[in-house]
Amino acid sequence: MKTAGIHHITAIVGHPQENVDFYAGVLGLRLVKKTVNFDDPGTYHFYFGDDVGNPGSIITFFPWADAYQGKIGDGQVGVTTYVVPKGALPFWESRLTKFNLTYKKTERFGEQYLQFNDVHGLHLELVEREEGANSKWEFGDVTSNVAIKGFGGAVLFSSQPEQTEKLLSVMGLERIGEEGDFLRFKAEGDIGNVIDVKRTPGEKGKMGVGTVHHIAWRAKDDEEQLQWQQYIADHGYGVTQVRDRNYFNAIYFREHGEILFEIATDPPGFGIDEEYEKMGSELKLPPQYEPHRQKIENVLLPFEVRNLD
To answer: Locate the VOC domain: which residues (predicted)?
Structure first.
């Protein structure tokens, strides 16, 4: 079996307004869905991506305003990589400088990266690649010719790198290179497809603000997801039952390097309960929470999507 690459990445962050200001206001992503954590409805669940939240473009957040700071380390996605069009990095250098964000330039596998942290401490990087269509979403000064297309991929910090590497091969990613402390894998999709595994274990990560909770991989539909469920179980991993997340179905398992993996279906997507023009503008609740809407809205902190340019 082969996954096309990353479906989404989910992280824990701080105040919702700060989170929205950074990912919409600074990075120019679209807030495609505003809902709640289905397991904790007093907490928002935000989805940011391209104009419709295509798989491979979606970063999602649980914002907890007063939660403790986490620590990035083994058992987590260490760095989330975004891909931009060729020639766009100078724009992003200027933009990061404009918003007083410290960044550094680095090179890996012959590619130039801009590395920086978000407002709550998540490690991010930008890389230019030809692959992947330009985003149709434009916001503030971020126009389509420089906008983030989606994920370039991720850097995985594993407590057992060799085990994580084996699993990526099992999931159909091809090992394409080794450089320094990194082993590179590539999936068949055109975004969210390049995964680097850090080969030297470090300190164990601690879940909290500024850390990735899980990384989700793509299944093309419900039928293939059930095949994945059996396939993963056959390879010795304890995998959950299918869980309905409204916009996709999900199964979860923790790989041997302690990173929480999910396999999520591409359909039905984020357009099932909002028109294109209104995506992300209203609080969407799953049916079981709709009777408690007023109570939930009273608990959630208000915020707005702001043009910071």
So the answer is: 5-129, 150-266
